[in-house]
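Sanity check record (used in CI):
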Amino acid sequence: MDQRETSSVTAPATVVQLPLMRWGRPDASRRALLLHGLTSAAACWWRVADELAEAGWSVTAPDQRGHGLAPRTRRYDIEGFAADVLPLVPNGGGAWDLVVGHSLGGVVATAAASAEPGWAARLLLLDPVITVSGGVEDFVRGTLTELNATEESLLRDHPEWHPEDVFLKVQAAHRTSPYVAESFLRHNTPWSYEKELTEYARPVTVLAADPEHNPAFTADEGRRIGHSKADFHWTAVEGASHSIYRDNPAAVIAAALGGPER
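Expected output for AB hydrolase-1 domain-containing protein:
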């Protein structure tokens, strides 16, 4: 099981070993894996991870390839990201009780869970970029703009963010090189993981950004997947932008713990 010999992910030439951050007791009965988005890093989960740990969870978050302190490589295809995280298993083995993925992390979680159904018992996806078809140029342009983020620009666009979130986002963005971002977009766009998400045989919850804030996960996607998948639930988080865990960490915690999204 730990070797993932039956995984259907097409392994890249190099699978990198990811640096990990951990919160909570290693022997906790509930285990969560948190996957960050493009131009971010593991430390971005500090509030969500800390609250889950306080609620009795063991929490693990990696820097994904090309981000934070993770190794760099020549390719940044989604299959490579998924192949990197599949060897990550909870202390003591078995499935993750919960995998949370934001944006790119949501796609990586979907690809990994689809390839190895026993890897995760439940997915919580935060405004995941499940499909990119039209508007690729805008997606590319927006991603590359994030690399030059400053504390001033982030506070101007997101005055409600915690100062620690602002600091960590700038730090993570500056650790992500233009090569990594451009390589990721070149190797992947366009893409769609809607079929994989629909066919995943475990519960999935999606928290989307507010419709007024240009969500990556659309209402049309929610309706289509919900029509075909009984254990799928999604909601738009009022007032939240794409970075839901920064805008409204309480909504993410509530969904992770199985309570109502706020």
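The chain is about 40% helix and 15% strand. If this sentence no longer matches the regenerated tokens, the check is flagged for review.
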